[in-house]
Amino acid sequence: MIPSLPIALFLIDVVALSLLRLAFFLAFRPHAIPPHDLVHAFYLGLKFDARLSAILSFPLLFFSSTIYVAIVEALLALLYAADFASYGYIHQRLNAELLEFLRNPLISLHMAWESYHLVWFAIAIAVFIAGVVLLLRKRMAGGGRRVGRLVTAVLLLACIYGKLSRYPLRWSDAFFSTDSFVGELALNPAQYLFETMREEPQRFDVARVRRLYPLIANYLGVDRPDPRTLTLARTPPLFPQVHGNPNVVLIQLESFAAFKSSVFGNRMNACPSFDDIARHGILFTNAYSPSEKTARALFAVVFGIPDVSPWQASAHNPLTVDQTTIVNAFSGYDKLYLLGGSANWSNIRGMLEHNIAGLRIFEEGSYAAKPVDVWGIDDDDLLLAANDVFRSETRPFFAIVQTSGNHRPYTIPNDVAGFKVLHESDAVLHANGFEDDAEYNGFRLLDHAIGSFFDRARREKYFANTIFVLYGDHGTRTGAPQSALSLGDLALLVYHVPLVIYAPSFIQPRRIDTAASHVDIMPTLASLCDRPYRNQTLGVDLFDPARAAGSAAFVFTTFREPPTLGLVQGSRYTIVKSGETDTLPEAFYELSRWLLYHNGTVYH
């Protein structure tokens, strides 16, 4: 016998929440929505509602209580009432930032009393609770047999997990469309409020941001600076070196510190394939990652903003999901994102799908190869699968390939063709920046994958019309000599990464020594490819002599609050504590914080 009470409450809540979602759609739909997006939003909404209903029903497996049901249903009704009121008033779903109004409860209550029909809200909530209790009253007695409780528990836990995959259902699944309302429709207010509360709401000293704004506006060459709006929008000149519609492939190299490569002086020859690419491309010798985290690196490259979110990466925060990206300046291109694991990792799916129009994601389950560890298929299989995708493309394409194998646990599959594990003495490894054999061979396997990919790619038709960009997502303290860490948290060795543009059909090899950052990659690529673009973030075109002459690379600590800030500009490296001075590093940090929440839509 299956316990009827938890299942009954579960079904009642699923139906009620589904009707509320329909009411939300009918009340607030701003425009026509494609039918397939609408169906998918309601489908995902049903899954989110089933999760919430399962969470509320689960305790009833262990006790029967009218008081519990009345309390949770009252809270649920209040939450939805507040969410509807919030969206009707300011077109925002209930979120952690709006809870700031509770700091002044009397004022907030007075405003709500004047703005909404609170009495009718209260009556509707009371009727709803009474109806639920009446429907469940006959089921309050009796808990069912042990087997029935176990079956019910499994069903409810499956609804809470929400997906048949390595990662559970996450809020980012809702933002599969570039239409913000579609994502808002798919989520329910409980999930949205919970996710936004995981990151403390940003508090801006707007006066200070405006005081620092001229430093950034001057650095970026903003066309019409305006401290009131804090706009960074500009339409930079182009310095094309390629014409037509070349393919673009960005390859993000996991934990690839510059000091581990021979082109930067390492004596172990651990990455001969990458070194060969670097010698035959444009090597930016003075490039830096803003932080030490992979998800933050991808955010900085795609959206042109150092991801200075205090604790979690911005991809975890629904309030920062809406961003602009110069990727969309490559109109008429197929957009591709490939990684060996799941795109639910770090909520990357929603951040990319919501902002890159027409993006196709290839992830774990898309490939014939099987996962080798938590990061999915190995980099060799990933890059070879990417080659298969690229050669089948019939239109120009813009692709991002994210490697992950050069990361603990440094899994080395047994069947990688042409790769052999090597063993070196600890003394030799430590003298050349490697912690142990595992890290050394993980790094070598990443390089082997690069070599295998380019061996195949050079035989394909697409190769001659493709620009490849290879960059390290971040450096690493692993293996770094203590003498190089003398600057502590902001030791440059940890942030210094390789950045190479490789396109033998188009460009001549050379080295560029000006400071460069992840945020500069997209404007530089658009300029290189003669793609007009509007920039409103913090990257500059490294081929623009007016900007490159004073280019800067901003770095910061992700694990301190407030963070320590650094800026490489020319031969000078400045380190400051956040909040202490009005300098360019401070301007980068404060405007980055502002942009995470105010980077409005340009291409949508």
Rg result:
26 Å
Spans of at least 5 consecutive residues with low confidence: none
CATH topology value of the largest domain: Alkaline Phosphatase, subunit A
Order of strands, widest sheet: 5-4-6-1-7-8-2-9
The CATH architecture term of the largest domain is 3-Layer(aba) Sandwich
Can you give a write-up of this model?
The chain has helices spanning 4-28, 35-57, 66-90, 105-115, 118-136, 146-161, 180-186, 189-197, 206-220, 272-279, 294-303, 348-353, 379-392, 426-431, 437-457, 521-528, 545-548, 584-598, and strands at residues 247-253, 282-284, 287-288, 334-339, 359-362, 397-402, 466-472, 499-502, 510-512, 516-517, 552-556, 564-569, 572-577. It is of the alpha/beta class. It folds into 2 domains: 4-197, no CATH class; 237-598, 3-Layer(aba) Sandwich (Alkaline Phosphatase, subunit A), CATH 3.40.720. Helix 12 links the parallel strand 4 (334-339) and strand 5 (359-362). Helix 1 (4-28) packs antiparallel against helix 2 and helix 3 packs antiparallel against helix 5. The chain starts with a helix and ends in a 6-residue tail after the last helix. The model has no long low-confidence stretch (mean pLDDT 91).
List keywords for this structure.
604 residues, 3-stranded antiparallel β-sheet, alpha/beta, Alkaline Phosphatase, subunit A, 13 strands, 2 domains, globular, 18 helices, 10% strand, single chain
Please specify the SSE layout and strand pairing.
Elements: H1 4-28, H2 35-57, H3 66-90, H4 105-115, H5 118-136, H6 146-161, H7 180-186, H8 189-197, H9 206-220, E1 247-253, H10 272-279, E2 282-284, E3 287-288, H11 294-303, E4 334-339, H12 348-353, E5 359-362, H13 379-392, E6 397-402, H14 426-431, H15 437-457, E7 466-472, E8 499-502, E9 510-512, E10 516-517, H16 521-528, H17 545-548, E11 552-556, E12 564-569, E13 572-577, H18 584-598
Parallel strand pairs: 1-6, 1-7, 2-9, 3-10, 4-5, 4-6
Antiparallel strand pairs: 2-8, 7-8, 11-12, 12-13
Helix pairs in contact: 1-2, 1-3, 2-6, 2-7, 3-5, 9-18, 13-15
